[in-house]
DNA sequence: CGCAGTGGTGCAAAGGTTTGCAGCGAAGAA
DNA sequence: TTCTTCGCTGCAAACCTTTGCACCACTGCG
């Protein structure tokens, strides 16, 4: 039913190869012929079949984007940015959600492998070695993780955590908790390392609570533990957890920031809407999405997948840039001076 | 470099057609042969090329999902549900974001058409006639809109709006505003119609403000207009706008729910986290996603796209079910009794 | 007049898979 | 024994497009 290149050829009285060229290399065909072909194509509603094209060119003009949880407001801006950048270059983005499950993640990347030209692995939960393995099957750019030998775009959450801790130190806090994120998260390790170092050099105690589900629920579930730990400030793995925690503390009768200061990470749109407005480490998610697409497409345009032999030994184009994007602490209303010792049941 | 069906055939000493059958119709091949082939395939890391398969079967095993704004928390649950349901049936979901732009929407559906077996049009902004047109190019299921002759899954926002208005009437409100959503939204029209009817029969005034961008910003921008209108309660097009409005009213010194009651629509996760917690009309988004996938896949499995002629006249299998899912009002803290007349500057 | 160059077009192979049909050997029936 | 039947496998066409190569008719130059 849908018109093929052959129908157009028949209708316009030329060979199919001429029709093909009319679309993929217009400068090679006589202007008169071209307009005739285009007219017929328009007439028949012809649109090139991308699958067939992919089969022979080895490029699908699709890229896959695998995220841990599309419902986490951290991801949509990244997805939108990636989509926009991809669209500029006539690519489409295939978004898939793993529900924070490393196994689903692997399945998905395999399933995607053959129908995309490359995959963006965003905040992966699988092991580095697995990532290296799949990267042999399909070009990969990793977001929010450092993997040796692979192109990566990271956000400097280490710096962010340091700023956050220093902000808290400046407000007089000396007992601070870090709400850990999910197992397998690179961000989590980086934050932990940086926060521990900053706390130590500031003479403060850092209690690590976790791992936790990186959601409101996960954050809320730690409220009791936070209270028992007697800290006066908390740095959460992300904004969602921070908001959940604030809610949970509220239910326990602890107020933010009077009793406990809370800092999140990501600066999701929502963090400006809650009360109190959330102090948070803003991450450049849109920039990360754009950059990752650029890296994939560049890293990928030099060697069409189904390349017909003749290729250089393969492996020589390993530029594998790794870029680190800056984060910035945004101070809002969920942080305040440390409460007077003893006023709130720190040790109680 | 990636192993093809031919490599596996060579390695296991059978014809490629046997390998093909091993994967697509295992019962047709001798168990011994099968295990040998599977072993070789495993060994070579062979995975069927979906593009090539699509070329001949006419089915890509992908479905497209077009949403207006992936950053709107209304969509992720729907997307996740659709993905889950699709995955069960060995389909993948291709998500694309139109940024609320009807033109981008049309482009996208055309671009997607050839690489998916069907498209889910979620909260479309384009005209009905355009939708009918694209539905001739690729099977379509429409979500959140009623289009004659096309399978649709809708949420009963009319009922929801009615409940919301009645809730407000019960609290004594008589001057109510409806914050309209974007132009072209079916939901918007339905809400408006139902809200107007409910208000009229309750003896209340309904002021319609809009259209507006269906975002926090869009909601916040109406705060001034809401104040000037002198209403004591507002029903917003969605939760995001409701939250933005609350924020905006706060900036004007009006408190929710003491001075103004606010109701949203969608019951996004976030509406439980804000203060005050939002009273809202909960929509069954996950169910909508699942249902839409089911309808598409059923409606679609009877006639493989590239069907080799012989087909019945085409158009006879128009079952075109249209399902309406129920909504329910969730009362939380953003609604309260109407303020005493005159206490708040209604007419001022 | 001959020849090289050039712009436009056709030819056919290739890409990886599915599938209707035919063929083969063995088992069962007559 | 001969004829079916049946389970399994091979053959080859088909899906739609791209692209290197060959071909043709001109043009312009020597």
UniProtKB/TrEMBL annotation, chains A, B:
One of its GO terms (molecular function) is DNA-binding transcription factor activity. It comes from the Bacteria. Keywords: DNA-binding, Transcription, Transcription regulation. CDD domains: HTH_LacI, PBP1_LacI_sugar_binding-like. Pfam families: LacI (PF00356), Peripla_BP_3 (PF13377). Residues 3-57 form the HTH lacI-type domain. SUPFAM superfamilies: lambda repressor-like DNA-binding domains, Periplasmic binding protein-like I. Transmembrane segments: none annotated. This is Transcriptional regulator, LacI family. It comes from Micromonospora humi. The lineage of its organism: Bacteria, Bacillati, Actinomycetota, Actinomycetes, Micromonosporales.
